[in-house]
Amino acid sequence: MNRIHPTTLTGKYVVLEPLSQDHHDGLVDAVRDGELWKLWYTGVPEPEGMAAEIDRRLALQEQGSMLPFATRLIDPATGTPGAVIGMTTYMNIDPVTPRVEIGSTWNAASAHGSGTNPDSKLLMLRHAFETLGCPAVEFRTHWLNHQSREAIARLGAKQDGVLRSHSRTADGVLRDTVVFSILEHEWPMVRNGLEARLARRRQRVE
User: Fold this and answer.
1) Residue 1 belongs to some domain of the structure
2) CA-CA to 14 of 20 to 30 Å: which in 42, 70, 111, 112?
């Protein structure tokens, strides 16, 4: 794998589309849903900074270190793509191993608990393991972001360790970073767990 190319990944609840400035207005509406940029333990962009954040991610894509997506809802009534609800990426791409980290993810507050996150992770993990041939996929989060840590653990990822005083947040404070991973031989069990979660949700909805 010399380079991961932009691609569209379609699931039951979301479509992951290659990020572009065409997603700007939808992403601004999404980030205002819950005022996510005010959460101190995350790096969610403010509405006024969305264009710059899109440009930043696309520049990293050009360098080959990131593949950014816009996350769009699928209308359950019609099966067609609907509103943009957030962003996610393959990041820190190692094309030699190959290995990717799934991160820089956020979704509108109203989408939390709706099945969109496990569906998105299922799409990205399946593509990483079954198409790109990664032997491992990594996740990282702030030590104090307990919601994120719990969500990653629910996926079936194992905690590798904690990088203490690893990086600085936007306000200059040093943060400890928790590192998780899923290995290739663990993927079938993780996939089955995600598919079961989504099936249970569909049954509740129906």
Assistant:
1) no
2) 42
Q: What is the mean pLDDT of residues 38-63?
A: 91
Q: What is the pLDDT of residue 203?
A: 65
Residue 202: CB atoms within 10 Å: 13
CA 125 to CA 115: how far, in whole Å? 16
Report CA-CA distances (Å) from 180 to 4, 26, 99, 204: 22, 30, 13, 30
Tokens 């593949």 correspond to: 67
Q: Among candidates 171, 98, 107, which has minimal Cα distance to 135?
A: 98
* Domain membership flag for residue 3: no
CB 162 within 8 A of CB 178: yes
Report how far residue 117's alpha carbon sits from residue 13's, in angstroms, rounded to the nearest whole number: 9
Quote the number of domains for the chain.
1
Asked if 1 and 98 count as a contact pair (C-beta separation under 8 A), the reply is yes
Q: What mean pLDDT do residues 19-41 have?
A: 92
Asked whether the whole model's pTM tops 0.85, one would answer yes
* 78: number of Cβ within 10 Å: 8
Structural domain span for residue 47: 9-205
Q: How far apart are the first and last CA of the chain?
A: 41
Assign residue 94 the CATH number of its domain: 3.40.630.30
